[in-house]
Specification:
Elements: H1 7-19, H2 32-43
Helix pairs in contact: 1-2
Length: 44
């Protein structure tokens, strides 16, 4: 359902990278957590 270009994914990626949030704050909504984790790890 979510992909790397989804607005919600971009919000969580930015919060993790810039504000130092952890992956635990990303809700387990469909595949949101998996996509956010993948995007952060690829762009790290």
């Amino acid at each position: 359902m979510f992909n790397a270009n989804s607005y919600l994914v971009k919000i969580y990626v930015r919060k993790i990278k810039e504000e130092g949030l952890t992956f635990e704050v990303v809700p387990s909504l469909f595949n949101l957590k998996e996509v956010v984790t993948e995007v952060v790890n690829v762009t790290a």
